[in-house]
From TrEMBL:
Gene Ontology molecular function, alphabetical: ATP binding; dephospho-CoA kinase activity
The organism of origin for this protein: Pseudoalteromonas phenolica
Annotated NCBIfam families: dephospho-CoA kinase (TIGR00152)
Protein name: Dephospho-CoA kinase
Pfam families linked: CoaE (PF01121)
Family: Belongs to the CoaE family.
PROSITE patterns, alphabetized: DPCK
């Protein structure tokens, strides 16, 4: 990788988007693994065609797009199906991520990925930043934001690396359980540090 890369992560509902949006407003390019994951299963994509062939056309909505809710139900209930899906999509996603990171033009580039450590994407990064909130805050925020049950949010959290393990792996931790103004001020302080590190490395 020629660019200096910041890996941005955090559990569901932790507030990665708040941080990545602020960094974007400061002129930093964001490569969002979630966006890329949607792109590789867009209508007409090789990813979606392979999924429909494997699971049948009932996995598609009326407009031909992926029924994400149904797919999520299947893979959370069946680890073999989850493995099959990961083996299909992860290489596609990783290749796309690598291309976008290499093509970024800002002083440094952010790789935003909820599963940064789980999918070993941190290996691509010069520094990792975890946006952190207590689990009960994750539950409340996500249930409200996505209009899903607390049980479903718990299942998603359980499927991800534990908060404690992520905290141990991250190079920096940003506490997002406080006033937004304080969080954004710290983001700007970190941003200045990252700019310096990126310039030194070039």
């Amino acid at each position: 990788m020629s660019n200096w890369i910041l890996g941005l992560t955090g559990g569901i509902g932790a507030g990665k988007t708040l941080v990545s949006n602020h960094l974007a407003s400061l002129g930093i390019e964001i490569v969002d693994a979630d966006v890329i994951a949607r792109d590789v299963v867009a209508i007409g994509s090789d990813g979606l065609n392979a999924i429909a062939k494997h699971f049948g056309n009932t996995i598609l909505l009326e407009d031909g797009s992926l029924n994400r809710a149904k797919l999520r139900e299947i893979i959370f209930a069946d680890s073999e199906q989850k493995s099959w899906l990961n083996n299909l999509l992860h290489p596609m996603i990783r290749q796309n991520i690598t291309e976008r990171l290499n093509n970024a033009k800002s002083t440094y580039v952010v790789l935003s990925a909820p599963l940064l450590f789980e999918n070993k994407l941190d290996a691509l990064c010069n520094h990792t930043l975890m946006v952190d909130v207590p689990v009960e805050v994750q539950l409340a925020r996500t249930a409200t934001r996505d209009s899903v049950s607390a049980e479903q949010v718990k299942n998603i959290i359980a499927s991800q690396m534990s908060r404690e393990d992520k905290r141990q792996k991250a190079d920096s931790i940003l506490d997002n359980h406080r006033e937004i103004a304080l969080v954004l001020t710290e983001v700007e302080t970190l941003h200045r540090t990252f700019l310096q590190q990126a310039k030194i490395s070039k």
